[in-house]
Amino acid sequence: MLTLMILASTSTVAQPSSQPPSAQRASFRVLQLTDTHLFAQAQETLLGLPTQLCLQRIIDRIFNQLQLPDFIVLTGDLSQDGRAESYANLSALLEPLGLPIYWIPGNHDCVKTMTRSLQAPIFEPDKRFEYQGWQFILLNSQILGEASGRLSNEVLEALTHQLETGPKQPTILALHHPPIMLQSAWLDSSALENPDELFAVLDRFSHVELVLFGHIHQEMSFVRQGVTYLSCPSTCIQFDGHSDTFALDVDHNPGFRELELFADGTWTSQVHRVDVKLQPDLSSTGY
């Protein structure tokens, strides 16, 4: 188990390139959105914040102020109540972007319901795919009925097989739960339970460049054995990672992560946030 001693909270992260500055490097863009926590009823709130309104603000920012990405990866807790209507709300919000969307479940999601609900034309079923010289592998870390996560033996065996037999090109993994300890008792109690088993696989393959995750509702980054691990802000409430008990972060707004991936295997990443003038319920002791 790796313990992170210092939390990084920078808005831009970049991997240095060995190419000269003048080199022309083809690239593409990917967005990570996570922990949307939508409800069947659009007006419902999570700890005082209307999650659907927050996500709409995120989508408006993407549509109006950014160069549209090639696709979006959703890293879990898409629904708070696990109902089909909440996933229908998600579809209605994202469909106007006209982008392919890949997804994995979080601990609040109902996998059977989301699998039935998140269908073509916008949602992609693939959990391993290649795009412009990069490989993407999406991992299900959900333990049914538990807040914490675990990568099953089947998932780890499939990951090993994919990394052994697949193309030796730059690879990004995505999962919901953090494979680290944050030194925050309440967040650490729901982290990935078997990170060392994941690390044992990744340590064998030098072409893994990035691991993306959600769940902790905050931005951070760290590097282990040459692999960069990036978390993403929630599109709604933000958590205080410095507290031993449940606590919200009111200093940071909802956000999402943008990645630019280059043909030479280098990358840059930036977190974008939107201003939502809403006050969460600070008296809450959980959700």
How would you characterize this protein structure?
Helix content is 20%, strand content 23%. The chain is built from six helices and 14 strands. Residues 1-10 and 20-24 have low confidence and may be disordered. Helix 4 links the parallel strand 8 (134-138) and strand 9 (171-174). It has 287 residues and is of the alpha/beta class.
Topology diagram in text:
Blueprint (H helix, E strand, L loop, with lengths): L11 E3 L12 E7 L11 E2 L2 E2 H15 L5 E5 L8 H11 L6 E4 L6 H7 L10 E4 L2 E5 L14 H13 L5 E4 L10 H4 L6 H8 L5 E6 L7 E4 L2 E5 L23 E8 L4 E7 L14
Parallel strand pairs: 2-5, 5-6, 8-9, 9-10, 10-12
Antiparallel strand pairs: 1-14, 2-13, 3-4, 7-8, 11-12, 13-14
Helix pairs in contact: 1-2
Question: Nutshell version of this structure?
Answer:
This protein has 287 residues and is an alpha/beta fold.
Structural class: alpha/beta
Helical residues, percent: 10-25%
Instruction: Note the overall shape.
Output: globular
Strand content: 15-25%
* C-alpha-based Rg, rounded: 18 Å
Give the N-terminus to C-terminus distance in angstroms.
26 Å
Within the largest sheet, what's the order of strands? Answer: 1-14-13-2-5-6
SSE order, one letter for each helix or strand: EEEEHEHEHEEHEHHEEEEE
Described by its quaternary structure, the protein is single chain
Which stretches are poorly predicted, pLDDT < 50 over at least 5 residues? 1-10, 20-24
Report on the biggest sheet.
6 strands, mixed
Mean pLDDT, nearest integer?
Answer: 90
Number of DSSP helical runs: 6
> What's the total count of β strands?
14
